[in-house]
Amino acid sequence: MPASNAERQKTFRRRLKQRLEAAGTLASLPDRPKIGTLPATKRWAAMHTQAMALLTTSLDEMQQYFEDRSEDWQQSDRGQAFQERLDAIEAAKEVVAELAEL
């Protein structure tokens, strides 16, 4: 029996919380520097980590959703559009990963 939408949302939120806790980013972001001309490197790094956790969690959940659908659905226009969104999230993850390396 497939899980209800509420159960899937609950599972998603639990996994997201676990990933954020594992990354150490559940606490608030570091403060901005007091002097506006100083870079906020730690703050930005924390934001990139949060972004990566969110993208990873949503991608995992969306891939599972896609795989749970029938092959007919996957080949349909809706399935192909959904696959394009998955590809866009993959691309976004690559961009965030590059930012984290800078």
Keywords:
102 residues, 0% strand, mainly alpha
State the helicity in percent bands. over 70%
Biggest sheet descriptor: none
Give the terminus-to-terminus CA distance. Answer: 46 Å
What is the overall silhouette?
elongated
Give the oligomeric state: single chain
Tell me the strand percentage band: under 5%
How many helical elements? 4
Which secondary-structure class do the elements indicate? mainly alpha
Number of strands: 0
Name the average pLDDT. 84
Q: What is the string of helix and strand elements?
A: HHHH
- Spatial extent as radius of gyration: 17 Å
Commentary on this structure:
This protein is mostly helical and 102 residues long. The chain has a domain at 42-102. It is built from 4 helices and no strands. The longest helix has 28 residues, at 41-68. The model has no long low-confidence stretch (mean pLDDT 84).
Provide a compact summary of the structure.
This protein is mainly alpha-helical and 102 residues long. 75% of the residues lie in helices and 0% in strands. The protein has four helices and no strands.
